[in-house]
C-alpha cells in the first residue's frame, strides 16, 4: 500500500513539471507558442500575462526564461540565443541590463515579479507565496546602477508613487559585479 501511494505522488510531481516550450517574438511582444505548457507555467509561477487567451511575456521575463532553459525564443522561425536577444533588448532600452539583473535576483529568491508601468514604476513584487490576483503586491521596485545618482526630486517622486499605491518602495542597487543590494524605503510619522 505504501509503495502504491509513493508511486502516485511521484506521478503527480511529474505532471507538474513544465516542459520547454516556444515563445514567438512578434514586433515588441513575446507570445507563447505552446498554450498548454505556457498556461502550466503561468499557473505555477505567474510568468507572463493572459491576453486574448494567449500568454504574453515582457522582454525581461522572456530573457529570464531563456536563460533558465525553460523556453526557446523564435524570431520568424529563427531560434534566438541569449546574447542575441539581450543585444536587441539593450538597443531598445538603455537601462535594460540593470532591470534584468534586479528582476532575476528577485525571481531567484522566490518572489513573483511583474511589470509596474501602470503604477509608474519598473516592477511590482509579490511576497513569497502570494500570486497576483490573490493579494496585492507588497513592493514596487526601481532598479538603479551603483554609479547612478538620483536627485531628491526623483527620489521623492518614487517614494510618492509607492505611498500612493499603498506599497513599500524597494530600490535595487546593482553593482559593477551585477550583484543586487535592496533598500526598502518607508514613510515615518514622528
Please tell me about this protein's structure.
38% of the residues lie in helices and 28% in strands. It has 190 residues and is α+β, with helices and mostly antiparallel strands. It has a six-stranded mixed sheet. Strands 7-8-9-10-11 form a five-stranded mixed sheet. Helix 6 links the parallel strand 9 and strand 10. The termini are far apart.
Descriptive keywords:
Trna Endonuclease, Chain: A, domain 1; disordered N terminus; MutS, DNA mismatch repair protein, domain I; 190 residues; 6 helices; alpha+beta; five-stranded mixed β-sheet
List the helices and strands and how they pair.
Elements lengths: L1 H15 L4 E6 L2 E4 L2 H11 L3 E3 L2 E4 L1 H9 L3 E5 L2 E3 L1 H11 L3 H13 L3 E4 L7 E4 L12 E7 L6 H13 L3 E7 L5 E6 L5
Parallel strand pairs: 1-5, 9-10
Antiparallel strand pairs: 1-2, 2-4, 3-4, 5-6, 7-8, 8-9, 10-11
Helix pairs in contact: 3-4, 3-5
